[in-house]
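Morning!

As promised:
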Amino acid sequence: MKRIGVFTSGGDSPGMNACIRAVVRASIYHGIEVYGIHRGYKGMVKGEIYKMDSHSASNIIQKGGTILRSARSKEFMTPEGRKQAYEQLQQHGIEGLVAIGGDGTFTGANIFYEEYGIPTVGAPGTIDNDLYGTDFTIGYDTAVNTALDAIDKIRDTADSHDRVFFIEVMGRDSGYIAIPCAIGGGAEIVMIPETETSIEYVVDTLRTGWNRSKTSFIVIVAEGDDAGNANEIAAKVQHELPHMDARVTILGHVQRGGSPTAADRMLASQMGVACVEGLLQGRKCEMAGIINRELVYTPFIDTITKDKLINPQFLKLVDILSV
Ligand code: F6P
């Protein structure tokens, strides 16, 4: 393999730039050329493909977002779009791809390989940490720390005004962001999609705390929770506990930005090198990841279809620590 392409796709996450840098530097180290594909699959279809050199990856390791831009592409979901993407790669002589993204990105890469035989090795790039095949994803640590910083600040107000705050965090269908936010932020309750938490349970827990002279509370709500969004949950609880003063904060996209933490820069750097070396070893349709501190490659099909389970002990921990 003499020439590869690298792109970021799906939601951006802090550390993507560190991963791009690692892909560029590892390619140069191994004597292959590297092209940056802008705006993910969308740019691949349109031919937004540019040669990168060592200098293109200078001074980006500490930056949030992605210098290659990102997008969710409707065009690539169609056979015509993928044909155009393949033709673009052919024109640029690109023989392999490094995809930095999540399960949607890897689903696309799998289909593309079946149709056109272009091998892709993936780096887990999402704040959600919902990918099977790695203990942590690039951007997760930063997102959790950003959320925790906000939760600490909200606690000051909750405490000063005797309030109950419902704080909604991201994570799509997963509670991976919510759990450390609840434990690290000292929350009384965490609501995640993986387990059912009834409104009755929330009301009872808050009432019990109130009767024990607790005057402020934090409830962390994962955005995908079955009980509803933070506004809906807060309204139902407030109806049952009219003497309490409920407020809602939705942290939103603030969790996706910012300079990556040391842990994310380390992970991103390892993943970028592992992707390039994986391609050179002849890997295809696999995601690099770290499990128990060891580098592993997991077939895309597993990262897409298998669930990464939340350790139930963490939920127990929230209960114990909020007594
Ligand atoms: O996958 C990352 C993520 O931030 C999720 O946590 C969230 O549900 C989603 O992306 C939001 O996507 P968008 O930026 O397209 O609104």
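The chain has eleven helices and eleven strands.

Hope this helps with the figure draft.
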